[in-house]
Design goal:
Blueprint: E1 6-10, H1 14-26, E2 30-34, H2 37-42, E3 49-55, E4 57-58, E5 61-62, H3 63-72, E6 79-83, H4 88-96, E7 101-104, H5 109-121
Parallel strand pairs: 1-2, 1-3, 3-6, 6-7
Antiparallel strand pairs: 4-5
Length: 122
């Protein structure tokens, strides 16, 4: 698979971003990294994204709120949520926001890559 489109990764944990980058590149994807919700929201090239892997807990901002802001801006890239803080409320809000997948940390490489591959064909 050529590196022609990117998976956007938004996580405030540097080690998580590094791990996800290695995993994605190992499976033939390019990764565009964001350390905060603000950095993602300031970006203007969403058309290059296969999908957005979005942490639900981003410091002071919820990934679910970020998803809502993106939708209001007309961004249609599919979202895959990842979270280390699984709860019924988070799960319901994430699924209600129209995400492609909801994964808990640690998640398997297969579940993340499979979700990204589904995003690439949708």
């Amino acid at each position: 698979m050529p590196l022609c489109r990117s998976v956007f990764v938004v996580d405030d944990d540097a080690s998580m971003r590094t791990s996800l980058t290695r995993l994605l590149r190992g499976h033939g994807f390019d990764a565009t990294l964001f350390e905060s919700a603000g950095a993602l929201l300031e970006h203007d090239k969403f058309h290059t994204a296969i999908c957005i892997v979005l942490d639900i807990g981003l410091g002071g901002k919820s990934g679910i709120d970020v998803r809502r802001s993106l939708t209001e801006q007309g961004v249609t890239a599919p979202v895959i949520y990842i979270t280390g803080n699984d709860s019924p409320a988070n799960r319901a809000a994430a699924l209600g926001s129209g995400c492609l997948a909801y994964l808990t940390k640690p998640s398997t490489a297969e579940s993340l890559i499979g979700s990204i591959e589904r995003a690439g064909i949708s």
